[in-house]
Specification:
The structure is a single chain. By secondary structure, the chain is an all-alpha fold. The chain has nine helices and no strands. The protein is elongated.
Length: about 210
Amino acid sequence: MGRKRGFDETAVLDVVRDQFWTTGFVGTSTYDLMAATGLGKGSIYKAFGNKDALYVRVFSDYCQDLVTQAREQLQDGPQAVLPSPVARLEHYLVSLAEAFAAESPRRGCFLTKATADRAGEDKLVAQTARRAYEDLAGLLAAAVRDAQDAGEVADHVDGTALGYLLLSVVRGIDSMAKAGVDEATLRRTARAALDLIPKIDPPQFQG
């Protein structure tokens, strides 16, 4: 059996992720990682590989968590956070807008940051980011189709295209939040995007 590591791997990876998230790949040196984790260079490389491998590791973990959280917020069925699919979409988008605005400092989403910082130079980062975007757009599209099945959204709407559109809105809200746009505006932007989806009016019953 291998010797047990003398540190909490999950805690170390969380610290490393936050360091990369805050200062970026280029702006983070191995010495920065050593200072943040309290580990020596040899311990870091032996446990996780070099700086590139460590970045991909924490970024991949972050993306998986992001998709899991979205799935929990948007899923249909007994575990749904709200009975209405449209209400779940609104809750998801608005809660993200509020979360982006509540950060101090506003560093935004690590997925957005890593895509801008590293996707052009690192194929693994690009592949991980693309997979995360596809998964998130797919979950949003599934929620739109749930809304169609529930009679809340018009049948002619392209759920897949709307999934990517709503994802683009989220990414845009993220960027605007980093630039200092106020929370109320971010919330209104999220709701305005949902208002553009063709809805089906509930039937009016004659008394």
